[in-house]
Amino acid sequence: MKRNWRRGFGARAAAALVLLVAAMPAWADFGLLNMTEGVTESSRQIYDLHMRIFWITVVIGLVVFGAMFYSMFRHRKSRGVKPAQFHHSTAVEIVWTVIPLIILVSMAVPATRVLIDLEDTSDAEMTVKVTGYQWFWGYEYMGEDVQFFSRLDEASNRARQLGSGIDPSSVDNYLQNVDRRLVLPVDTKIRFLITAEDVIHSWWVPDLGWKKDAIPGFVNQTWTVIDEPGVYRGRCAELCGRDHGFMPVVVEAVAQDEYEQWLAGQRGDDGEAARTAAVDGDDAGARLAAR
Amino acid sequence: MTATTHDDAHHHEAGYGGLRRWLFTTNHKDIGTLYLLWSLAMFLVGGAMALVIRAELFQPGLQVVDPYFFNQMTTNHALVMIFGAVMPAFTGLANWMIPLMVGAPDMALPRMNNWSFWLLPFAFAILLATLFMPGGGAAGGWTMYPPLMLQTGDAFPFIIFAIHIMGISSIMGSINVIATILNMRAPGMTLMKMPLFVWTWLITAYLMIAVMPVLAGAITMLLTDQYFGTTFFSAAGGGDPVLYQHIFWFFGHPEVYILILPAFGIVSTIIPTFARKPLFGYSSMVYATASIAFLSFIVWAHHMFTVGMPLAGELFFMYATMLIAVPTGVKVFNWVATMWRGAMTFETPMLFAVAFVILFTIGGFSGLMLAIAPADFQYHDTYFVVAHFHYVLVTGAIFAIMAAAYYWLPKWTGHMYDERLGQWHFWLSTITVNVLFFPQHFLGLAGMPRRIPDYSVQFADWNLVSSLGGFAFGLSQLIFVWLVIKCARGGQRAEARAWEGAEGLEWEVPSPAPHHTFDTPPAVR
């Protein structure tokens, strides 16, 4: 049996090598390995929590797997060792119950602090209502008389059809572009009211640090303060049917005065058309998207 | 000590031969074999569905299937793997091994045993037939969240019916396991002397009896919402879609432990054998398993941190979930301590068991990360979660089942399996499964949601790697199929105690285990 194992080893190593070579093209982009730090205070706190737990697990892993591998190399029958017969030690077992408990507390304390902060939607300076539809988003600036729908952009929509023959990499921001962006001011505490019209969706922009389910008949709330102007892209994160993969979210964060200007512009004809359209629901959304 | 009274090892029920033997059998070994072969078949069917998913995700753009069919594949892949592959595999192992391990002549309720198996082919015939019905099969995810699930076409009642049948089958299997373990142990085998596999199955069986009816309730409420005008889950009629999620996960979270506790038992059996050293901390293993089972009932809402729960709820479910790390850690430490200063050899069952400990622990680490509610807001419904539960269920549950199959194949067939093929299967599986699932952690953290048929181009590279790993992993499993066929047909004869360090009553009877064993109960010290 042991001889077989040795003979097989070379062949197995070769198989592993072939696999690694086959995976080579992927080494072109190593950039995508970790969570984004994002552009809000909460997203940075969440990133810190994430890294903290990650490193704790890495250390535990090194200790546990280290002990295992040491044992596997040193305590092999082929080295002529005689097996020990111990099978119990209350002291050891108490130690390895109590130490993990302490580690868990050290994780729970900061996590609790961040969670309490994340759930505090008080003192918001403005409110945006987000509504999920199959399969696009509706945005309403509460009290501002502005609302519109936001859909997958035309170029992505054409390219994503089955057998379209269009190379996705030739499309700008394939599947993460919309016809109308959600424009938001920076350095402003924005409250989001999130709901849905038909099935459950989930509104997610990784740079903001959270996602929140959009549930028909219920209104969830959450908040953000965006630090830096920029375009932040996200997508629906809850399985919502056939076109679940095709309802991106694009947030454009701009300076306060720029935002005011934009808002004023929206109250014109565009805004009027969107308001009328909203009454008709899905069909109107389609017309809007076609525009 | 030999408790075999029948000389002819393959004595069958009078009058039944060929097909009728398998149709009408009440023998725990035959039924165990049926369950195991069924589960292998479903593993290949569910695997084929996974390959459709990986083929579509091979590169950005839609090339192979349309998005609706893609959703049917993700949904049915999950249902087939959970209810068709993993659970029946464990039930098959329970049927084969529990009576042998506790010194019983058969399962306590043999005719019900026959029925609980034969329900499965009917349930899955219905489930798979829904893929061809007008409007298509289930496409709302295996969790079947309303209102999306209510948009299913004509297949809707058939899906519910199929799941009800699977649930009935599981409950009957569990009743049988509990009745056998509690009533039919050999004299002298106290509860705290039972092999760990028996212990973990006893606890699992209670979990199943507790939560399968909950699932049945949830899907029945879906059914009445669809056809009888109730509005349990519709806000328009005073119901609540989130109520469904609470009920579902009250079933669903214990369910994931149903899928892993017997694996703990298997690994706790195999590691001492090949370390030639008794299991470290037997009683703490039992208590840890029981604690995990208890905790599994109070953590369900960690699947729903993003639905908008009150802060107090989120805190409670976060703390409770983190607590599970303690008993799980105790188990891992005990396995390492069992290996410590043993005299180890690494035959295929041991390789799979060791890989289980390492890779399942990695799945546990990502589970701990997911438990942290604020961080979960980013991880939730991404490929990070997909990577997490595949580490737990593929390199966890399925690797343990593989380990068990290699470990007991000599007992089942009377032949040693081909060790060289076994080693090939192990190394190819272990390398490719990591190529398949490890990059999915990166994809999830980088922002790729799960259950999407197409993705933006920045996710292309790791998806390519993952798909290559997926195809290679799928093909590697064919080695196992060939190995099982080869082993059943013949090979080096296995001794009664096939492994040098093996302990337990199952190794006291000849290999293959005679059709009837323990007509007189063996004595246990």
TrEMBL record, chain A:
GO terms for molecular function: copper ion binding; cytochrome-c oxidase activity; nitrous-oxide reductase activity. It comes from the Bacteria. It is found in: Cell membrane; Membrane. It comes from Sediminicurvatus halobius. It is a multi-pass membrane protein. Belongs to the cytochrome c oxidase subunit 2 family. Belongs to the NosZ family. Residues 123-265 form the Cytochrome oxidase subunit II copper A binding domain. It catalyses: 4 Fe(II)-[cytochrome c] + O2 + 8 H(+)(in) = 4 Fe(III)-[cytochrome c] + 2 H2O + 4 H(+)(out); N2 + 2 Fe(III)-[cytochrome c] + H2O = nitrous oxide + 2 Fe(II)-[cytochrome c] + 2 H(+). This is Cytochrome c oxidase subunit 2. Nitrous-oxide reductase is part of a bacterial respiratory system which is activated under anaerobic conditions in the presence of nitrate or nitrous oxide. Subunits I and II form the functional core of the enzyme complex. Electrons originating in cytochrome c are transferred via heme a and Cu(A) to the binuclear center formed by heme a3 and Cu(B). One of its GO terms (cellular component) is plasma membrane. The lineage of its organism: Bacteria, Pseudomonadati, Pseudomonadota, Gammaproteobacteria, Chromatiales. GO terms for biological process: ATP synthesis coupled electron transport; denitrification pathway. Residues 24-122 form the Cytochrome oxidase subunit II transmembrane region profile domain. Keywords: Copper, Electron transport, Membrane, Metal-binding, Respiratory chain, Signal, Translocase, Transmembrane, Transmembrane helix, Transport. Binds a copper A center. The chain crosses the membrane at residues 52-73, 94-116. Residues 1-28 form the signal peptide.
UniProtKB/TrEMBL annotation, chain B:
It is a multi-pass membrane protein. Residues 22-525 form the Cytochrome oxidase subunit I profile domain. GO terms for molecular function: cytochrome-c oxidase activity; heme binding; metal ion binding. Pathway: Energy metabolism; oxidative phosphorylation. Cytochrome c oxidase is the component of the respiratory chain that catalyzes the reduction of oxygen to water. Subunits 1-3 form the functional core of the enzyme complex. CO I is the catalytic subunit of the enzyme. Electrons originating in cytochrome c are transferred via the copper A center of subunit 2 and heme A of subunit 1 to the bimetallic center formed by heme A3 and copper B. GO terms for biological process: electron transport coupled proton transport; oxidative phosphorylation; respiratory electron transport chain. It is an enzyme of class 7 (translocase). The gene is ctaD. Keywords: Cell membrane, Copper, Electron transport, Heme, Iron, Membrane, Metal-binding, Respiratory chain, Translocase, Transmembrane, Transmembrane helix, Transport. It is found in: Cell membrane; Membrane. Belongs to the heme-copper respiratory oxidase family. Its EC number is 7.1.1.9. One of its GO terms (cellular component) is plasma membrane. Signal peptide: none annotated. It catalyses: 4 Fe(II)-[cytochrome c] + O2 + 8 H(+)(in) = 4 Fe(III)-[cytochrome c] + 2 H2O + 4 H(+)(out). CDD domains: Cyt_c_Oxidase_I. The chain crosses the membrane at residues 34-58, 78-103, 115-135, 155-184, 196-223, 256-274, 286-305, 317-337, 349-373, 385-409, 421-442, 462-485. InterPro entries: Cyt_c_oxase-like_su1_dom, Cyt_c_oxase-like_su1_sf, Cyt_C_Oxase_1, Cyt_c_Oxase_su1_BS, Cyt_c_oxase_su1_dom, Cyt_c_oxidase_su1_bac. This is Cytochrome c oxidase subunit 1. It comes from Sediminicurvatus halobius.
